[in-house]
């Protein structure tokens, strides 16, 4: 499916007034209630199409991953504005309900139950950390409600109705690692938070490092919320890597990079990975400048679709800083889901999921689509250099990587 030009749609908030039927209806909820999931999803699962399409968003708007979580919300809101300004889905607007899971898996379970049982959502989108995504996805799967994540990395979960928009670990590092070895050398240090995603990310990275003649000389992990990274930094420094691949997230990414710079770990060494994401530039600034990484999105990518998205984002959120890949991915996720609902002709979960693997969307992430067997996403990746002022300049648009890793999504 070719993406329709978004220039008109993205100007909706600034140029349209009095169009209540097309408004983004956003309700922000915190965790409340409790108990286990019971009952069905109400009219959110019956295929009804004589009402608004209800999208539930699970996002850590507070807590350790709030930087990424708020980028997620920003992208989803802009995506809904774009879709609603173009007529919505099946002639009806998308209504948004946002819940804060605080980067906590138990809370993710609770608020996803709330979205389905109390808010009767037709689709659940979110969240950031792998364990919270598994928690939310498990609740959605039990209720038979489609669910998508947008964060990078493989969520250790799949179902017939799970469609993850974030790049897999292989997509993130397959072309980045050979570039870093060529630029800096073969000795690599790995560092990450101690939870699912960093371990799977580094497992894939280790294979690719070895395949390209490199050697992992250190691999260190620390819990989410670590304030003092000096012990980890000392171990990495003693291993003397040529460059470091990070899987440190949220506020920890800022803490690690700031301390690594203070203690000289980054002097005359390459560093790349999750700590190079756009949402961290405002806090890290010069520490990131001159560094290289691979992302699903750069706001410097040429093209009318991206120019319109950037203009709308800047109008809403200001001109400061680079636009994060999470914001762009979540924006495209909304557009993709809307296309699937339109193709399905209703809000029925089975009908929507049947369309998810057949649609191709040409937009901010290049040629975006899903494999039918393992539900891995396929999209362009962009090799970028981080320049002064937070400009993520495109070095090279990388060919899409088709991740054929087997997993059961039945």
List its salient traits.
single chain; 410 residues; alpha/beta; Rossmann fold; 14 helices; 15 strands; 38% helix; globular; disordered N terminus; Peripla_BP_I; signal; Leu-bd; Branched-chain amino acid transport system substrate-binding protein/urea transport system substrate-binding protein
Give a structural overview.
The chain is an alpha/beta fold. The protein has 2 domains: 7-167 and 299-379, Rossmann fold, CATH 3.40.50; 170-295, Response regulator (Rossmann fold, 3-Layer(aba) Sandwich), CATH 3.40.50. It is globular and about 65 Å long. The protein has helices spanning 7-10, 12-15, 66-85, 105-117, 130-143, 169-173, 176-184, 196-211, 230-239, 250-262, 281-284, 304-317, 325-344, 349-356; strands at residues 25-29, 53-59, 94-100, 123-126, 147-148, 187-193, 215-222, 243-247, 270-273, 292-295, 361-363, 366-370, 377-378, 381-387, 391-398. The chain has 14 helices and 15 strands. Helices cover 38% and strands 19% of the residues. The chain has a 5-stranded parallel β-sheet, with helices on both faces. A 4-stranded parallel β-sheet has the order 7-6-8-9, with helices on both faces. Strands 10-14-15 form a 3-stranded antiparallel β-sheet. α4 (105-117) runs parallel beside α5. Mean pLDDT is 88; it is low at 1-25 and 30-46.
The count of β-strands is 15
Low-confidence stretches: 1-25, 30-46
Note the total helix count.
Answer: 14
Rg on CA atoms, Å: 21 Å
CATH-assigned fold name of the largest domain = Rossmann fold
Q: What's the shape? A: globular
CATH superfamily of the largest domain: Response regulator
**Which structural class fits the helix and strand makeup?**
alpha/beta
- Beta-strand percentage range: 15-25%
Mean pLDDT: 88
Largest sheet features: 5 strands, parallel
Spatial strand sequence of the major β-sheet:
1-3-2-4-5
The residue fraction in helices comes out at 25-40%
Number of domains: 2
End-to-end Cα distance: 25 Å
Highest-level CATH class of the largest domain = Alpha Beta
Order of helices and strands: HHEEHEHEHEHHEHEHEHEHEHHHEEEEE
The CATH architecture of the largest domain would be: 3-Layer(aba) Sandwich
Signal peptide: 1-38
Family: Belongs to the leucine-binding protein family.
Domain Leucine-binding protein: 54-390
InterPro entries: Leu-bd, Peripla_BP_I
């Amino acid at each position: 499916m070719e993406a329709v030009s978004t220039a008109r749609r993205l100007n909706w908030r600034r140029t349209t007034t009095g169009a209540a039927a097309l408004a983004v209806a956003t309700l922000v909820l915190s965790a409340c209630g409790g108990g286990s999931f019971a009952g069905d999803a109400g009219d959110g699962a019956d295929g009804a199409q004589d009402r608004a399409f209800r999208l539930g968003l699970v996002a850590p708007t507070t807590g350790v991953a709030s930087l990424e979580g708020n980028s997620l919300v920003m992208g989803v809101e802009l995506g809904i504005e774009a879709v609603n300004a173009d007529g919505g889905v099946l002639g009806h607007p998308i209504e948004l309900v946002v819940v804060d899971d605080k980067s906590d898996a138990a809370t993710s379970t609770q608020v996803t139950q709330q979205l389905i049982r109390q808010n009767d959502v037709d689709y659940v989108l979110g969240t950031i950390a792998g364990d919270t995504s598994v928690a939310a996805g498990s609740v959605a799967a039990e209720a038979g409600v489609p669910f998508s994540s947008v964060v990078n990395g493989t969520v250790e979960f799949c179902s017939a109705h799970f469609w993850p928009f974030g790049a897999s670990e292989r997509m993130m590092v397959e072309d980045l690692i050979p570039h870093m070895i060529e630029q800096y050398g073969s000795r690599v240090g790995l560092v990450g938070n101690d939870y699912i995603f960093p371990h799977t990310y580094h497992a894939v990275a280790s294979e690719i490092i070895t395949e390209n003649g490199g050697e992992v000389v250190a691999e260190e992990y620390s819990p989410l919320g670590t304030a003092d990274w000096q012990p980890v930094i000392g171990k990495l420094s003693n291993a003397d890597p040529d460059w470091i691949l990070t899987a440190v997230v949220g506020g920890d990414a800022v803490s690690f990079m700031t301390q690594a710079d203070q203690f000289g770990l980054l002097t005359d060494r390459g560093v790349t990975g999750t700590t190079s994401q756009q949402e961290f530039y405002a806090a890290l600034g010069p520490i990131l400048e001159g560094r290289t990484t691979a992302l699903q999105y750069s706001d410097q990518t040429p093209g009318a679709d991206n120019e319109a998205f950037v203009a709308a984002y800047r109008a809403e959120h200001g001109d400061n800083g680079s636009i994060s890949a999470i914001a762009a991915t979540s924006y495209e996720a909304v557009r993709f889901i809307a296309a699937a609902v339109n193709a399905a002709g209703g809000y029925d979960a089975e009908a929507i999921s049947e369309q998810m693997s057949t649609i191709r969307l040409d937009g901010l992430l290049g040629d975006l689509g899903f494999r039918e067997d393992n539900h891995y996403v396929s999209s362009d990746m962009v090799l970028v250099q981080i320049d002064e002022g937070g400009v993520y300049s495109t070095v090279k648009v990388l060919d899409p990587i088709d991740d054929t890793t087997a997993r059961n999504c039945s």
